[in-house]
Amino acid sequence: MTAAAGAGAAAPAASAGAGAATARAAAPAPATASATATAAAAAAADYGAPGPYATAVEVGAVTTLYYPRDIASSDRRHPVIVWGNGTFAFPVVYRDLLLHWASHGFVVAAANTPQSNPGISMRAGIDLLSRRDADPGSPFHDAVDLEHIGASGHSQGGAAAIVVGADPRIDTVLPIQPGPLADIDGVDVPAFLMAGQRDSIVLPFLVRAFYDDADHIPAVYGELRGADHFTVVGAPGPFAAPTTAWFRAHLMGDGAARAQFLGPGCGICADGGTWSDVRRNALASR
Asked: What is the pairing mode between strands 78-84 and 2-5?
């Protein structure tokens, strides 16, 4: 089943068998940025706005895909985000956030399971896109950047993002209010751990415990001011901009986005209106 959604308007989805573009270019490897905190803060507002791509949705048995609608004719390869849901939730609960990422050029593979903690269904999303990318009859043929993959999720799915982060195919993890059943010691890629100031289900100190244990990787902890456990559900509100910026930094080589989190500028560190607490370890601060 395929449905389409534009940035604010519905549109026909790309159909299978559409002509694949030639000479697809993978997203560039991340590069070090030297933008000032002021410039980074201005860029953050753009990451919260819809991206340039109209979007489409394909609901499968194991995985729901959110992706740029014109991917079959795109002249580039699109990085991947695998997603895990919270307990008893399905991808449709987070549809607005996942479509937001797709509008910025990502292919999102969301696991169709309300019990995502083991990470099996999230890994299956990578396997699915690998097959689609290799299939000449698929609109995803030669259009998926399998060299740049991030893992994210909410609550139980946040823990799953940490679990999946041990997979060598993953380049970064972004757990949102992650549950406790994960071990970040197995993750060897940069991590952005997000908490909500008013979360009474996954208390902020539980998310900080993951951050404190992540001293072997570049790690950032961000606590959104006023956010509770369900702020990310439906319209993603304050979660849209920082999550998009993090993935653009690590999967697309966006230097302005990188300056939001890493190096001396740290745009989010200067944004006390959005964040009630921001912490970075030594590896992220360099």
From this structure: unpaired
Gap between the Cα atoms of 89 and 158, Å rounded: 13
Q: Report strand pairing: 55-59 vs 2-5.
A: antiparallel
Identify whether the C-beta of residue 139 lies closer than 8 Å to the C-beta of residue 18: yes
* Whole-angstrom distance, CA of residue 181 vs CA of residue 113: 17
Assess whether pLDDT exceeds 70 at residue 206.
Answer: yes
pTM, two decimals, is: 0.87
The CATH number of the domain holding residue 158 is: 3.40.50.1820
pLDDT of residue 35: 37
In this predicted structure, what is the pLDDT of residue 44? 55
Domain that holds residue 220: 2-13+34-285
Distance CA 284, CA 81 (A): 21
The one-letter amino acid at 241? A
In a domain, 22, yes or no: no
pLDDT digits (tens, 9 = 90+) for 20-58: 333 466 654 444 333 334 444 444 558 999 999 999 999
The enclosing H or E element of 82 equals strand 78-84
